[in-house]
Amino acid sequence: MSSFFEFIFGFLDFVCRQMRPGRIAIRPYVRGFWDFLLRWVMRLCLLLVFFFDIVIYIFIESKCQSLLYFPGKICHNTMNKTKEKLLIVDDEKITLDLLINGAMGFDLDIHGAANAEEALEYFQAHKPRLIVLDWNLPGLSGLELCQRLRSSALGKYLCILVVTSNDRPEDMERSLAAGADFYMSKPISIPFYKAWLAAAGKRVSNFRGLEENDNKVADIKAELEDVNNQLETTIAQANELAMESEKNYLEINQIFRTVAGGILVVDNDYNILKHNDNFLGLLEDEVDSAVNMKCYDVFHSSLCETENCPLNSLRRPGQDHFRAHIVKERADGGVVHYNIVSTPLRGLVGEQIGIVEHITDISQQVAAEEALKESERRYRELSTVDELTGLFNKRYFNQVLRVELNRTVRYGGPLSMIMMDIYNFKIHNDTYGHAEGDKVLARLGEIVKQSVRDNDVACRYGGEEFVVILPATVGEGGLVVAERIREGLAAERFCEGQVQKTLSLGVAEYVLGDDREIFIKRADANLYEAKETGKNRCVLK
């Protein structure tokens, strides 16, 4: 490229020199025109050189940036990722093949089994986390197999789907009681099956994180227990040696250097006689040595200067060791958790002349346990709440209704139920799309929440049907709540203010002697009458 421009500049320079006075006889105005033209040609060439420099610079810069931001791109794409294992158990080959083919689109290691014995053998060898079971299996049934899988070491980290033609409510309850997470009735719905696989894959991924936390907590507990056992054994041996001389204290320098956490020896006057370097690391103030200082001044806690102080506790008859969990707030606002294990230090004739304390920072263990509890709480919430509306789901409705019916039968008092249905909701979805339909459902969920009491239980029963359990409420009171919900939705406008949606609601009050099914049927019958007699109304009978 540079040679080309050198040639152009050389040629232009030659032409300019030839056009000087005395070289070529040329009229002044023609020469002026050529001077003007050559000047602009040279300027254009300079601009082209500048432009190509910029283009080359940008190209090199972009390549450098790509290397800076994506240095491991090729290696990353070639890394192997372990597939999640899916075990499908069904004695019918057609159904087994259908379930296997339905999972082919997912990144899974799929294995099919025709009976429970083959499934258990594969489970013991390969530890799959995703499991699909048929209820009716030869020999060991699907529910018995589900119970065995749940009782295994990996049981709490499995995601199990039961497939069956038994679709009665009591059958669903039996499968859930056996340990199944989900229930799918035959004929098999491939879209539902694929949706379950997608959700179950994420759930199993969360379970692996939970399992990792459980293992860490178990390791921490085992390590702490081992250290405590080692310390108690060592201190017991030290007490035997201390009986040889009242003033010659136990030499435990080697123990101080090897045992995790802080160790200190305190006499009966709360003076620190000896400590290891790890104890100094637990203090907020930096000191070179804490020997001859008061223990409650150096490491103050809520136990100090009380009857529950380790030294005072070990003075009580029959007390051979002391354990405590204390929480200290640091100057920066942080909170630290400590585990304290203390044993008596005895003299020649067995009298207590002090104590030996082992102090361990267990903040990480406490944080792991709290994270585990929060994860379990979140899981329980997700298993009972409908994500779209924020109301409880049908599974939770069945549980609460059973409890409320038992309470009403035993202690008396009224109990009412509201069942409601959105008018022409399917047509709304077909006309305006499911996204607009979801907005209607979500807004109705908010209206129902605002219209009921804290002790009322509002649930999404299925699709566009909702149900509210009203404890300690007569039928007329339930009718008032139903009217409030109906008016709330009727006042709303959807699809940019163009569409009004209405509700039909059936209210039923519990009658002594009704079982669960009859109670629901009476509320559903009143809902049906509300639809048939004009819609956008409430019916109580």
Give a written overview of the molecule:
With 541 residues, this protein is of the alpha/beta class. Helix content is 50%, strand content 18%. It is built from 18 helices and 15 strands. The protein has helices at 2-18, 28-69, 73-77, 93-102, 116-126, 142-150, 169-177, 190-242, 253-258, 277-281, 295-298, 310-314, 363-382, 394-411, 425-432, 434-451, 475-490, 516-532, and strands at residues 84-89, 108-113, 130-134, 159-164, 182-185, 262-267, 272-275, 322-329, 335-346, 352-361, 415-422, 457-462, 465-471, 503-509, 538-540. A five-stranded parallel β-sheet has the order 2-1-3-4-5, with helices on both faces. Strands 7-6-10-9-8 form a five-stranded antiparallel β-sheet. Mean pLDDT is 80; it is low at 21-31 and 63-80.
